[in-house]
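Q: Hi! First time asking for a complex rather than a single chain. Here are the components, and I think there are two in total. Is that enough to go on?
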Amino acid sequence: MARPADAHAIRSAFLSFFEERGHAAVPSSPLVPFDDPTLLFVNAGMVQFKDVFTGRDKRDYTRATSAQRCLRAGGKHNDLDNVGFTPRHHTLFEMLGNFSFGDYFKRDAIRWGWEFLTQVLELPAEKLVVSVFNGEGENAPFDQEAYDLWAEIIPKERIYAFDAKENFWQMGDTGPCGPCSEIHIWRGEGGAPPDGGKPGKGPAFEDDKYMELWNLVFMQYEKLASGEMTKLPAPSVDTGAGLERLAAVLEGVETNYETGLFVPIVDKVKALAGVSGHQGEREASYRVIADHARATAFLIADGVTPDQTGRPYVLRRIMRRAIRHATLVGLEDLFFHEVCDEVVNRFGEAYPELREAREVIAGAVKIEEEGFRRTLARGLRRVSKILAGLEAEGSKVFPVDEAADLYTSAGFPIDLTRVIAEENELTLDEAAVAEKLEAQKGESSFAGGGGSKVADVYFDIVNELGQGTAFLGYGATAGEATLKAIVIPAPEPAEGEPALEPTRVESAQAGQAVELIFDQSPFYGESGGQVGDTGALRAVDGGAVVTVTQTSKPTGGLHVHHGELAGGSIAVGQRFVLEVDVARRDAIRRNHSATHMLHHALRKVLGKHVAQKGSLVAPDRLRFDFSHARSVTREETRRIEAEVNAMVLANAPTGTAEMSLADAKQAGAIGLFGEKYGAEVRVVTIGEVETEAGEERSVELCGGTHVARAGDVGLFKIVAEGGVAQGVRRIEAMTGMGAVEWVQERAEVVDQVASDLRARDLGEVLGRLEKLHEELAARGREIDSLKRKLATGGGGSQASEVVEVEGGGKTVKLTARRIPVADPKIMREAADTLRDRMGSGVVVLAGERDGKANLLVATTKDLAKGKIVHAGKLAAALVVHVDGRGGGRPDMAQAGGPKVAGLDDVVAHAAEELAKQLA
RNA sequence: GGGGGCAUAGCUCAGUUGGGAGAGCAUCGCACUGGCAGUGCGAAGGUCAGGAGUUCAAGUCUCCUUGCCUCCA
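A: Yes, that's all I need. Here is the structure of the assembled complex.
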């Protein structure tokens, strides 16, 4: 085999090498682990084989090889902050591996690892050193076998032995584990490492002089809960070699960023920034952006879009960090999508899923970058405001609380705050801010925790039965079966208490809540968005009846019937007749088939970027979440409804077929291909509509239950559309009689409205309504104008009573009056008018509103500014007559009180109180 | 799941002991100009997210609901 020409060629060379040695080349799994809530992202090559190692899953091969995309960001392994500043930390990386599931063991693993490095990659053998487990730190002995095998290949002084911390591996606290053997390359001076085999030397102690290339894990033990170690009957091998490191060695460069995997991406960023060559201190920023663009492109291709919780939040952090670094090197425009697109160009051949998702990636990245740049702009405004305040105070220290607050509530990066502060010759204690944030973290410690862990009891049952429940429900809604297991559900734990485990029993009595498992069942267990069936279970001997309120599928095809034992007693081994609630199931069928047709119509009307993000199929409605950046317009909604209803009317039969995943893809099936399916997948076809574009139909991977013909769906009606997250829309719809009733209800209301409006037909309704609105607004204006006239004395027919008040040698004009409308707005306007009429003077208005007394005192500006009259004080003095309180500014004050009868007194005493103020 | 924050004109936002709902941009009208750009003047546009409470008085204070932003797990 020829030496790989570049970094990308290493990948294919590796896979071919092991394929030639009988391995199945398995494609990389998506970054989101299937069915494993304990793991945020796939972070090692063996993740997709986890269940194969434990024996829970069987494959038709016993040796495999893969190039697996992995991500380390968020969670326990968080290297995010190091990325870009060190030679080898990455968020996304590729792990090359070969695996043996009870097939070959140490000899072949060691031999092939060595052969690939020295003969295919042609690495100098004298620079390679290896390590084995020395028997310390774990309840397992020195790995003599591995040592002896290595000794056949390389000189003994280049074989090191280290303790469990370095050379022992385990999947979890219990389960398969074993010693491992690592291959390192000497990077120091000279051809070979100088301190071969000496204690305290070697890769475990001199990390900077060696680089780990390959880790070979030999799974030969099983660790029990007691800590005891037992030997596995069929030992396995799990190996991993980082592609980026191999590339760096092969190309003879110092850092992974200088390999062919990164250079084109880094250069793309530099081109966008208008620079080239090494950028000194700023180089790290370009590396961060390149690294994060890789992670971003792959994550989005695997169905993750940035958001505020969980995996989507990790993606958001990665993206924002990249954009933050972009601002540091002066990239001000939207640019990140172009970098991600370059990733698609470079990695699309090895990972076709990137190419398929090209538009989706670009769209999601643009949206996020726009959003974050808005966040930054908002933050900058807040910072400027704070800076202005500090300048006024003459302070030279940026407040720690403000910086922390900017970060936690506005998402404004702390380091950016510091940079701006420094530009304004202010200091910011970043350590104090970090401390403050740490303290806040303590305050917001979360309650509860963990995902929904599947209770062990269900795994035990599957293992014991050897298989799950055989599902009869595609063809039937009733059937006979044997009761295989009874589980008593765990009671709800008290607040703050850990969840309790359900318990297995052999029999149960009337009145008990039970979960029943049969060898076969027509009941559909909740999965794939479709809700579980309900119905009844009757013992064949006539004794017991169980009402089933829910059917779930906690694991591996196990259909669990939840319900209550209505009468009699039951025991494992009994025969039952199982009857699904048929009307409910039929409603579910309609909604499930309609969901498929909706998905198809959405892709047709909105575009191929539409991908399922979530789905709920219930008897009364269906809900479908999908990726789409904008809201769906009314016109689009209309077209989508029309598409679906056209398919319904064509009334084509639905078809289901079992086929291989490859054949399903070939047939154009859509579905969540990232999920783990068995060798055979079920494909549901609905439609066969003749259109100008040819035949059209919905083809989807699906395990759900469907109608026999599209026409069974009946009327399809979208009843709601909205957003659930950035870039994700939700449509809710109804079918069958439910949809008919929904439409009828609406139509009745519209008819009623039309007749109330005296509209002759529907077209007239909107016109009438508009006219009504206009009329109402006109009347409102008229009323306001009349109120104003009343308040100011009715158009001058009654002469305004202006009196002159003397006091303290000054004379001030006063108008004091009762007014019939005491609307605050009207009173202000009236006071303005009266004030203007007097030129200079004081206005006191008193009136009743909603059973309360309101007064208003206003003075002209000259009196207020000259501190001759204070409206607020005058109002306070007058309001005692209505037992109220009040106040206001010198030129305008309002007051009020409950004693309406005192209003005349207010007017009567106005002159007197004003005189007191003047004096 | 927990914490912090926001919701005011079509858009971006101001509104500081609770006491006249504002600015800029956009829209429309008028004027200047041969036309456009532009400038000037003017107008329209608001259930201050929704609901309850405190108060004589709530955009402003309290509580609830909804939506969004943001940090953390």
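A: Residues 456-580 of chain A form a domain with the Elongation Factor Tu (Ef-tu); domain 3 fold (CATH 2.40.30.130). Let me know if you'd like any chain examined more closely.
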